[in-house]
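Q: 4-carboxy-4-hydroxy-2-oxoadipate aldolase/oxaloacetate decarboxylase, please. Structure only.
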Amino acid sequence: MTSIRTDFPRPTPEQIAAFATIGAATVHEALGRRGAVDSAIKPIWPGLRIVGAAFPLKTQPGDNLTIHAAMKLARPGDVLVVDAGDYTEQGSFGDVMATSAQSLGLAGLVTNGGVRDAAAIRDIGFPIFSRAISIKGTVKATLGPIAQPIVVGGVTVHPGDLIVGDDDGLVVVPLDEVEAVLAASRARLEKEERLRADLQSGKTTWDIGNYDALLAQTGQSLQA
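A: Structure for 4-carboxy-4-hydroxy-2-oxoadipate aldolase/oxaloacetate decarboxylase:
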């Protein structure tokens, strides 16, 4: 196998743990509304969360050899991020691979392709976000790029970027922005807590947002 660098920088364990309780939507807003992956890439069952360092790879349609190679090379805590070329008529990752990935300590898998054995994977508990679920199997013939930048769901993913996902979707945080986005996410959560307190006291979102002034700027008014 060609030598592949896998010692690229990653978020610290402390950073990853801090993001484990922050929603993907909050992270997306804190990143300046950047980094949101195509909403068609969804968790394969409700309630999933995924947080970890991106380990990118690219496969050929109908071929999952590169995923097997990446599982051998990735580190515990990594999220396999697969560019399958948006080819969804394949189940390139199933319950046997999920058992192995979980045993290796991988944090999950994201793919713009398809997976299969969804019910069994749910029982195993391995987090997966995919564009599709497909019964069709794959071949093992071509080794694609590993630990190199790819594009998934319209977002460029570099090795070591932070992946955060939940029921709302997925966001990719560039590694060099992780600490700043963490601080901005925490500030946003604190602001939302204050907002909830105001709402519980009887104030409305309209008044808190001063939307009368917003309408006035366009020559409109709210008739109540």
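A: Brief note, in case it's useful. The two ends are 71 Å apart (CA to CA).
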